[in-house]
Amino acid sequence: MRLINRRPDRTSWLLLAALPFVAVLVAYAMGSAVRLAENPADKLLPGLTAFADAIDRMAFTADKRTGDVLLWLDTGASLARLAVGIAIAAAGGLLVGLSAGLLPYVRATLAPFVTVVSMVPPLAVLPILFIMVGLGEASKITLIVVGVLPCLIRDLMLKIDDLPRQQLIKAQTLGANSWTIAIRVVLPQILPRLIDSIRLNLGPAWLFLISAEAIASESGLGYRIFLVRRYLAMDVILPYVAWITLLCFLMDLGLRVLQRRAFPWFEDARAGA
Amino acid sequence: MMKTRRFLGKLTAGLVAASLLSLPAYAAPKKDFKLAWSIYVGWMPWQYAAEQGIVKKWADKYGIKIEVVQFNDYVESINQYTAGAFDAVTVTNMDALSIPAAGGVDTTAVIVGDFSNGNDAVILKGKDKLSDIKGQKVNLVEYSVSHYLLTRALESVKLTEKKDVSVVSTSDADMVAAWSTADVTAVVTWNPLVAEILATPGAKKVFDSSQIPGEIIDLTVANTDVLKDNPAFGKALAGIWYETMALMSADTPAGVAARTAMGKASGTDLAGYEAQLKATRMFYKPADALAFVRGAEPKVTMQKVAGFLFDHGLLGNGAPSAEAVGIEFPGGVTYGNAKFVKLRFTDTYMAAVADGKL
Q1: What's the whole-model pTM score?
Q2: Do residues B110 and B193 touch, judged by C-beta distance below 8 A?
Q3: Which Pfam families does the protein's record reference (chain A) (predicted)?
């Protein structure tokens, strides 16, 4: 039988899927054991008990100095920044993307500008951003918006181009004006695609959030990682990274569920049916 | 199926091997050594010594090689040393205790180079009394010597960090830009940033490290095991250092040339660098450093520093007290956990220079 036609059964699929995870864990445990045998207080690859201690300290014990439970404080602060940043970017992306995608005059005005702006690496202009909007919450949210918005706009414009031309012509023959076409024909088809676009931009959004938090902050997941990096506390950093990964996964899952519930027809449309 | 299993086995073995190979090698007699340094008034001599061939001269004398590597990021240089990628690093007394020592990497201060005598400062915008800091947000590199300076400053006016101010962690790279924004009204930082911030209108220095002399000490430290197996490395470091010190402190054209080069390398000029040197108590002669490190002061300071680190949870996983990490002073006196001595102040190498025994 050809290799391309051989499929793993359910059990071997599970085993194969688990393999890379197990391999990483085994490699970590071995590396950690070697270093801990040399130096029981090693900070680079701490043992599992050190992780348990650190998780207990960060997630379930109030901080000695402030009385806050740090993991939840950080999570709340970061998620709030992320939610506001993505919400603004999504609303702005939809508004600009829709108008530029449909109206040639708006496209002529904005498309080249948005394309150029999307090429500016947001982290490179961070110092200017700080001087313009200060060091507070506003600058962190602005960085997320500046980083994500141009991508959303460009993506939505392309998605609108992909819509079959005939739809717009049919709608016009039925007497629809530009506004009705935008709201009744294009918008419903664009919303699930916007969700796709946001899902792809979650990673960059986190990147911008964490970079902003590294520069000036009082709380946040990125802030904590950069803070404890000062004394190489991998026992705190690695659980934080795992937690961020989980949050990111859950946000992605949430958006996927929202997409399926709100736009049940979209799966067929995506499959090209 | 057999084939798959064999393949999977090989894959696992490969991954494990790759992860083991990436571990750093451990101390043993060796010929090549690496020192990491970062830009600071008291550490600039390392680069100058490397450029002038002083490093090579002493390394050749002991039949070894010493590579001097500059880091733009101070913390990263300490982390690399702690992880085992470097044999020596330039570091303050506080960071030496909280990063390598608390991480179980036995570390010896080969050279006590200087202490900050005004280089670190608390600066307020438009206010000229330290007590005005009450209720303000203070931008600083959290958990650094600036943070320590702030708690010592607050103590002096009977305020506390917990009740009276809130600390905003700000990267040193962005400190000057932060200062120019409206919502930043108080910062604690170090030179050359202090000089740059004080040059702006409205900036008032309300406390500096000259009010806690001898507490922020700048060291060149090395891995204790490496030193034990290779005493030549420690001797070469001390030889390089004091030859460079004699050169840079001299009132001769060569001395001026050395200070000019160091000033340029740290982003300022001769005048700027000499102003920073004025705020630094340099131990140009080994005898001065010996008198300081053999005196009672470092013991008192290190207890305060350990207390600060413990209060902020920086002495390692669940450290039970400020005495969790042992510190050794010349003459074998120790503070803290005698079974876990990980930071050592020694007079061995500096004394060898003073006694002409290199």
Answers
A1: 0.81
A2: no
A3: BPD_transp_1
